[in-house]
Write a structure and sequence with these properties.
Distance between the termini: 63 Å
Mean pLDDT: 96
Strand content: 5-15%
GO biological process, one term: fatty acid beta-oxidation using acyl-CoA oxidase
InterPro entries: ACOX_C_alpha1, Acyl-CoA_ox_N, Acyl-CoA_Oxase/DH_mid-dom_sf, Acyl-CoA_oxidase, Acyl-CoA_oxidase_C, AcylCo_DH-like_C, AcylCoA_DH/ox_N_sf, AcylCoA_DH/oxidase_NM_dom_sf
Radius of gyration: 27 Å
CATH architecture of one domain: Beta Barrel
GO molecular function: acyl-CoA oxidase activity; FAD binding; fatty acid binding
CATH class of one domain: Mainly Beta
Structural class: alpha+beta
CATH topology of one domain: Butyryl-CoA Dehydrogenase, subunit A, domain 2
Helix content: 40-55%
Family: Belongs to the acyl-CoA oxidase family.
Bound molecules: ligand LPWUO67N, flavin-adenine dinucleotide
Number of helices: 23
Largest sheet: 6 strands, mixed
Subcellular location: Peroxisome
Length: 664
């Protein structure tokens, strides 16, 4: 039976069609229906319940994850789910596991870097989970610097095999998810050596464990790297350590789409660029951007619903106290995060389109937009994961003391999410890649090369260096062209200033190292411009549903104007806007917060998260927070007994001791 809806009064204030917004959020009616069906399937299956997992010890936790992964696979087969449905189902199971790496990196690496024959051999095995794969790139000594990896793959022409070897302690593979205890195979990145010559780092398919008894192949040492940040959280994953002692694999297990090694050990380059070896990382970074909006929306949904339930101060004549969501300070912290969730959703959609476009072009041997795809995926991965990790922590604070309880769902979400700032490329290292791309683009402007895609605005650099922001009233900040120009001018001016500073150095690499902190700021400005411009593009689409476009406009301007406020130093110091215009932007922001306020609950309802997926007492759909929080407390193992274990050993003697001392 459905209980009372404590948030009904909030839902009654809604000024737009929530069902239509659910479809906008999901991306299409098809995506909405499919994800909704999978979310309900998982939520209604007791085998997938999540209660109490934070209280499990590592071994129990890990075994529990194995059980869920096996059950998910069973359901996928029984229900004949499509690949898309299966992906949603795994997502709603909501527990990091070896399957993330198998489907998210092992399979894509074979698809992206394997030859047709390799794909025909390995993909069917992987699709049926007759083998389980991980992605073993990072080592104890090197992660960011991929060219610094030490594992070797030496071709032996006598046996037509590669010998995979870990020559040093620091060459031990370290971190790969699913490797520690589960994977039977891995894509191992190693330095290719043929005829005594080095040919850079390449991927190799290596069997790690027996398919009969799961024992490591002789010569392989393998295990888990140990507990990670937070209770439960990412400890469901067996991140692993792996060393090779002269392991032999057939020559045809090197992924050879980029470079082929012949029977004689000769290296033959194909027509695809060497950077395609990094293609799996581009793919995964793109999915991480899409995931950022999902994680951010979870935190924002919890904080928004709870902010509407929670009341503090302001009671007059014994009436109700103020809902904390009505405090302007709460709104100015919460609503930009709500706006960011939508902004990241749309930029994630666009990035998926870009990735699909690049993939099609690559197949037609057009590699021209690979550098831009790399810069966009790297930069947006960095921007969205940093913002999301910070936002989850801000949402915890927005929930006051109760946000710190595991029952809020926020500590676990933070612990699971925060490594996204590191894995798949440290966020600063990735911004430096964007900076290289931007500086290269600026340096080519003089030679007449016209920038395209996300850097097209740099082609108008002369105008952008001179333009004056056309804002006289707060309402002027609601013009897309005004907002876009301010962001373009800020980014262009920062890029040009950095490029001028770089040109003062004799050696560009020295300059790049010296100015790297400034360069990273220019990358952030460029990436924020991409997010703002893709949100504005979204508003130009024909979006059905009463009031939906209006809400999205409000969110778009909140996203942009809040950034303007936060990075005011950039906008003012580059002369893009005046202090007076900045003050008008703030006036407009406050007005937008008031307009969003009555719609806030409906805007988080549009995420369509089940209570199972949210996993938060504070974020419950029905807002029935206090009784459930009270109930939850009694489930803690400490409350199994009234008098705790240890009383007789430690508390009682202490009390008696004090009594004796008092008598003395
Ligand atoms: C409450 C409970 C909730 C539960 C939720 C559960 C939900 C599940 C959550 C889990 C979600 C997802 C699971 C994810 C699992 C984690 C997976 C993590 C996997 C990994 O981390 S794999 C390892 C990734 N490693 C890295 O990313 C390393 C980073 N380093 C690099 O990328 C590069 O080496 C480099 C930094 C780019 C180095 O560059 P450098 O210039 O030194 O290198 P090169 O000389 O090799 O390159 C020069 C040239 O190439 C261009 N280039 C570089 N990279 C690329 C690329 N990827 N694509 C295209 N081009 C590239 C570069 O720009 C240069 O070009 P230029 O010569 O200047 O034109
Ligand atoms: C939870 C988790 C899961 C992972 N899963 C996998 C996996 O499945 N497979 C896999 O292969 N790897 C995996 N990794 C490894 C991950 O990809 C690396 O940790 C990541 O790429 C960062 O590299 P690093 O650890 O070498 O960091 P480092 O490069 O050592 O970073 C340390 C510090 O140095 C700074 N720094 C480094 N280089 C530069 C530079 N050039 N300029 C300025 N500053 C710099 C960084 O910004 C950072 O502050 C995982 C990591 C984690 C945390």
């Amino acid at each position: 039976m459905k209980g009372v809806d404590h948030l009904a009064h909030e839902r009654n204030k809604t000024e737009f069609d929530v069902d239509a917004m659910k479809i906008v959020w999901a991306g299409s009616r098809h995506a909405f229906e499919l994800s909704d069906r999978m979310a309900r399937l998982v939520a209604s299956d007791p085998a997938f319940q999540k209660d109490g997992r934070i209280r499990l010890g590592r071994k129990e936790l890990f075994k529990n994850t194995l059980r869920k992964a096996a059950h998910a696979w069973k359901r996928i087969l029984e229900l004949h789910l499509t690949e898309e449905e299966a992906g949603w189902l795994r997502n709603f199971v909501d527990e990091p596991s070896f399957t993330d790496l198998h489907w998210g990196m092992f399979v894509p690496a074979i698809k992206g870097q394997g030859t047709d024959e390799q794909q025909q051999k390995w993909l069917p095995l992987a699709y049926k989970m007759q083998i389980i794969g991980s992605y073993a790139q990072t080592e104890l000594g090197h992660g960011s610097n991929v060219q610094g990896l030490e594992t070797t793959a030496t071709f032996d022409p006598e046996t037509d095999e590669f010998v995979i070897h870990s020559p040093t302690l620091t060459s031990s593979k370290w971190w790969p998810g699913g490797l520690g205890k589960v994977s039977t195979h891995a894509i191992v990145y190693a330095r290719l050596i043929t005829n005594g010559q080095e040919h850079g780092v390449h991927g190799f398919i290596v069997q790690l464990r027996s398919l009969d008894d799961h024992m490591p192949i002789p010569g392989i040492t393998i295990g888990d790297i140990g507990m990670k940040f937070g209770n439960g959280a990412y400890n469901t994953m067996d991140n692993g350590v792996l060393t090779f002692d002269h392991i032999r694999i057939p020559r045809n297990q090197m992924l050879m789409r980029v470079l082929q090694v012949t029977r004689e050990g000769k290296c033959v380059k194909s027509n695809v660029p060497r950077q395609l070896i990094y293609g799996t990382m581009v793919f995964v970074r793109q999915t991480i951007v899409a995931d950022a909006s999902t994680a951010l929306a979870r935190a924002v949904c919890i904080a928004t619903r709870y902010s509407a339930v929670r009341r503090q101060f302001g009671s007059q004549d014994g009436g109700m106290e103020t809902q904390v969501i009505d405090y302007k300070t709460q709104q100015s912290r919460l609503f930009p995060l709500l706006a960011s969730a939508y902004a990241f959703r749309f930029v994630g959609e666009w990035l998926k389109w870009l990735y699909t476009d690049v993939t099609q072009r690559l197949q037609a041997n057009d590699f021209s937009i690979l550098p831009e795809a790399h810069a966009c995926t790297a930069g947006l991965k960095s921007l969205t994961t940093t913002a999301t990790a910070d936002a989850i922590e801000e949402c915890r604070k927005l929930c006051g003391g109760h946000g710190y309880l595991c029952a809020s769902g926020l500590p676990e979400l933070f612990a699971v999410y925060v490594p996204a700032c590191t894995y798949e490329g440290d966020n600063v290292v990735l911004l430096l890649q964007v900076a290289r791309f931007l500086m290269k683009t600026v340096s080519q402007l003089g030679s007449g090369k016209k920038p395209v895609g996300t850097t097209a605005y740099l082609g108008r650099v002369q105008d952008l260096l001179q333009c004056c922001c056309d804002v006289q009233t707060a309402e002027d900040w609601l013009k897309p062209s005004v907002v876009l120009e301010a962001f373009e001018a800020r980014s262009a001016r920062m890029c040009v200033a950095r490029a001028q500073n770089l040109s003062k150095f004799e050696n560009p690499e020295d300059g790049f190292a010296e100015l790297s902190a400034d360069l990273v700021e220019a990358s952030v400005a460029h990436c924020q411009l991409i997010v703002v411009s893709k949100f504005i593009d979204k508003l130009q689409q024909d979006i059905p549903g009463k009031g939906v476009n209006r809400q999205l406009q409000n969110l778009c301007y909140i996203y942009a104007l809040n950034l303007l406020h936060k990075y005011l130093g950039d906008f003012l110091s580059t002369g893009c806007i005046t202090p007076k215009q900045a003050s008008l932007a703030n006036d407009q922001l406050r007005s937008l917060y008031s307009q969003i306020r009555p719609n806030a609950i409906a805007l988080v309802d549009a995420f369509n998260y089940t209570d199972h997926y949210l996993g938060s007492v504070l974020g419950r759909y029905d807002g029935n927070v206090y009784p459930k929080l009270y109930e939850e407390a009694w489930k803690d193992p400490l409350n199994d007994s009234v008098v705790p274990d240890g009383y007789h050993e430690y508390i009682h003697p202490m009390l008696k001791q004090q009594l004796r001392n008092a008598r003395l």
